[in-house]
């Protein structure tokens, strides 16, 4: 084995071009896998953020609410018990990512009609891990106020404002958005319920849900059927465009990395395989000679596969370094908001050191079999 | 001792099966130098490969030193070959990325008893000590062949098989190589030389003539030692 290792080293140093090209193939595969893996968290956060900004895709309002009023004003005058959202959360046949109950009313502040929205905390399906907070985190007795309202009230962050007969602290002034949110105040649901004197009442449930892409069945119909059983006082609306956009965005993000990695691995393996085959072709007389000298099939295989393993190890080390550099330097350009999530993952080096030699050896398996099975008598007779 | 009993080999080619050896029966006693002569395609190299355990015959048995070469497993045959048979080729088949000394030591795998010192001494005897650190590309053809001979003889195999060892050499180098082979025989080795030329014949104890895969004539030379 010592002699085989020595031969591998000597050969690698002799056929430098083949060695470099093979190492580059392994390095490229590892580097891109590492870079993709490192930027994956940032990409997911960025996607989550993007899809969150799109809005919810299911709205549930009281059954008694008038759809025309709802679509005209953007909220329902009718309310339903807050318990509705908890019942929905517990329902076994309802699929959702998270639910938020809201209570929305129009109020007058400084002679202007504005919208007040009370937000519950997000409810997640039982057993699902809570994702990091990307939305509102309003404190008790605090409010987020829209840009125009802040102007009208001359309100500043951490200052108190007075409306509905009580004092609220401005936790945040939203940037100008050019939407209804510019004249909206967001508060905690219990605070808003108390201020509006509507304890334990809500008038809308927003559900982020990807049931919408159930292939050949109408998901809203399914959801309505399910909800009718448990929430006889609610009705469901589905915003197809938002739901589809969200689902497609997620699906794209979920699919692109594995696809890219698979393509990379196949291309790299093919590259390594071709180079290994060329290498064996160049060495066929050398291999014939070794057979004549009494080298066994195992030693001949070890020459080819050991070479591949060494290239894989070197490719893993270099690829990890290059992948980290790529992700850290180029990643923030693509994921500027969530760039902090891009950081080196030392465990990836371990995986690379395991995976790259395996990939290289797998790619060299056919050339190694060829080397072993090639009749040395044919080669040596061709003098 | 080399012994072949009714050995036949056939190769499959696109044009149909081709006979390599056709019912060859042959015996070469230990310590003799035998030359195999004949036109191209007569089966000389095939005979060599069959004796060397590199080409399994379709029919017949090949024995070297009393052992049926092809009754062994592949790995046992490889080990047997490493210990008992040395090959010398017309094209030398030196490994291009190893220097002369390393090329010679290539045969020592699994034969840990052979020291580097023995290889150095052998190179000295063959007039190659000053070339020990050179790559094959830096050697003359004569030096390459002597390196190949050193590799084939370092472990002192009982059988040395040489396939056209002088085919690429000038007269002077060819004579030197033949002399080395003769000396190997004189030291007790059995040498089988496939040749086109007549340079090895003067050292031959027997001459085997082949044509179309058959041994057509076997001559035991009068002045064999």
Structure commentary:
The complex is a heterodimer of chains A (about 375) and B (about 220). Chain A has about 375 residues and is of the alpha+beta class. Chain A is about 55% helix and about 15% strand. Chain A has 13 helices and 11 strands. Chain A has helices spanning about 1-15, 15-55, 65-75, 85-90, 145-155, 190-195, 220-230, 240-280, 285-290, 295-335, 345-365, 365-375, 375-380; strands at about 60, 80, 100-110, 110-120, 140-145, 160-165, 165-175, 185-190, 200, 205-210, 235-240. The longest helix of chain A is centred in the C-terminal third of the chain and has 43 residues, at about 240-280. Chain A is elongated. Chain B is α/β, with parallel strands linked by helices and about 220 residues long. Chain B has one domain (about 1-220): Rossmann fold (3-Layer(aba) Sandwich), CATH 3.40.50.300. Helices cover about 30% and strands about 30% of the residues of chain B. Chain B is built from 6 helices and 10 strands. Chain B has a 6-stranded mixed β-sheet, with helices on both faces. In chain B, strands 2-1-4-5 form a 4-stranded antiparallel β-sheet. Classes of the chains: A alpha+beta (about 375), B alpha/beta (about 220). The interface of A and B includes residues 285, 290 and 294 of A.
Radius of gyration of chain B: 17 Å
- Report the order of strands and helices of chain B: EEEHEEHEHHHEHEEE
Total beta-strand segments of chain B: 10
Largest sheet of chain A: 9 strands, mixed
> Strand share of the residues of chain A?
15-25%
Low-confidence parts of chain A, pLDDT < 50 over ≥5 residues?
Answer: 212-216
- Strand order across the largest sheet of chain B: 6-7-8-3-9-10
Q: Unreliable stretches of chain B, pLDDT < 50, 5 or more residues?
A: none
How would you state the average pLDDT of chain B, rounded? Answer: 88
User: Biggest interface in this structure?
Assistant: A-B, 28 and 34 residues
Q: Pairing-aware structural class of the strands and helices of chain B?
A: alpha/beta
* Separate helix tally of chain B: 6
Distance between the termini of chain B: 16 Å
- Described by the principal axes of the CA atoms, the overall outline of chain B is globular
Structural class of chain A: alpha+beta
Describe the biggest sheet of chain B?
A: 6 strands, mixed
Order of helices and strands of chain A: HHEHEHEEEHEEEHEEHEHHHHHH
Overall 3D geometry of chain A?
Answer: elongated
Summarize model confidence as the mean pLDDT of chain A. Answer: 83
């Amino acid at each position: 084995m010592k002699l085989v290792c020595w031969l591998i080293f000597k050969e690698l140093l002799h056929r430098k071009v083949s060695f470099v090209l093979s190492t580059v193939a392994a390095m490229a595969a590892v580097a891109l896998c590492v870079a993709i893996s490192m930027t994956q968290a940032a990409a997911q956060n960025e996607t989550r953020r993007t899809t969150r900004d799109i809005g919810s895709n299911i709205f549930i309002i009281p059954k008694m609410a008038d759809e025309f009023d709802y679509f005209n004003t953007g909220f329902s005058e009718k309310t339903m018990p807050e318990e509705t959202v908890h019942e929905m959360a517990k329902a076994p046949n309802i699929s959702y990512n998270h639910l938020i109950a809201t209570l929305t009313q129009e109020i007058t502040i400084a002679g202007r009609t504005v919208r007040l929205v009370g937000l519950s905390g997000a409810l997640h399906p039982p057993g699902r891990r809570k994702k990091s907070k990307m939305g509102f985190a309003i404190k008790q007795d605090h409010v987020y106020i829209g840009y125009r309202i802040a102007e009208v009230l001359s309100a500043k962050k951490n200052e108190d404002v007075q409306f509905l007969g009580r004092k609220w602290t401005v936790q945040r002034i939203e940037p100008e958005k050019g939407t209804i949110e510019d004249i909206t105040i967001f508060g905690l649901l219990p605070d808003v319920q108390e201020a509006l004197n509507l304890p334990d009442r809500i008038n809308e449930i927003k559900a982020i849900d990807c049931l919408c892409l159930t292939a050949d069945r109408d998901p809203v119909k399914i959801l309505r059927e399910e909800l009718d059983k448990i929430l006889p006082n609610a009705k469901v609306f589905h915003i197809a465009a938002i739901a589809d956009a969200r689902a497609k965005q997620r699906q794209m993000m979920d699919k692109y990395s594995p696809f890219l990695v698979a393509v990379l691995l196949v291309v790299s393996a093919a590259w390594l395989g071709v180079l290994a085959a060329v290498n064996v072709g160049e060495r066929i007389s050398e291999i014939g000679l070794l057979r004549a000298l009494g080298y066994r099939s195992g030693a001949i295989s070890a020459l080819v596969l050991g070479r591949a393993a060494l290239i894989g190890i070197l490719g893993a080390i270099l690829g990890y370094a290059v992948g980290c550099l790529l992700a850290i330097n180029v990643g923030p350009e693509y994921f500027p908001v969530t760039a902090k999530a891009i950081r080196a993952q030392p465990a990836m080096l371990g995986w690379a050191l395991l995976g790259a030699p395996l990939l290289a050896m797998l790619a060299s398996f056919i050339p190694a079999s060829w080397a072993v099975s090639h009749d040395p008598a044919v080669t040596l007779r061709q003098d | 001792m080399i012994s072949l009993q009714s050995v036949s080999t056939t190769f499959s080619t696109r044009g149909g099966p081709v006979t390599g050896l056709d019912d060859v029966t042959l015996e070469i006693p230990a310590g003799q130098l035998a030359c195999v002569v004949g036109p191209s395609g007569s089966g000389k190299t095939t005979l060599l490969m069959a004796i060397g355990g590199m080409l399994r015959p379709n029919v017949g048995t090949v024995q070297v030193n009393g052992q049926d070469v092809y009754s062994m497993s592949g790995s046992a045959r490889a080990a047997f070959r490493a210990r008992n048979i040395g090959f010398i080729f017309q094209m030398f088949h030196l490994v291009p990325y190893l220097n002369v000394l390393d090329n010679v030591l290539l045969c020592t795998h699994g034969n840990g008893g052979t020291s580097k010192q023995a290889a150095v001494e052998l190179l000295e005897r063959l007039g190659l000590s000053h070339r020990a650190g050179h790559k094959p590309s830096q050697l003359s053809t004569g030096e390459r062949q002597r390196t190949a001979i050193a590799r084939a003889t370092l472990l002192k195999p009982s059988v040395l098989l040489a396939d056209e060892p002088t085919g690429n050499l000038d007269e002077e180098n060819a004579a030197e190589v033949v002399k080395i082979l003769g000396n190997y025989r004189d030291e007790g080795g059995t040498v089988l030389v496939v040749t086109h030329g007549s340079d090895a014949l003067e050292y031959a104890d027997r001459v085997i003539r082949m044509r179309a895969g058959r041994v057509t004539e076997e001559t035991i030379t009068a002045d064999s030692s």
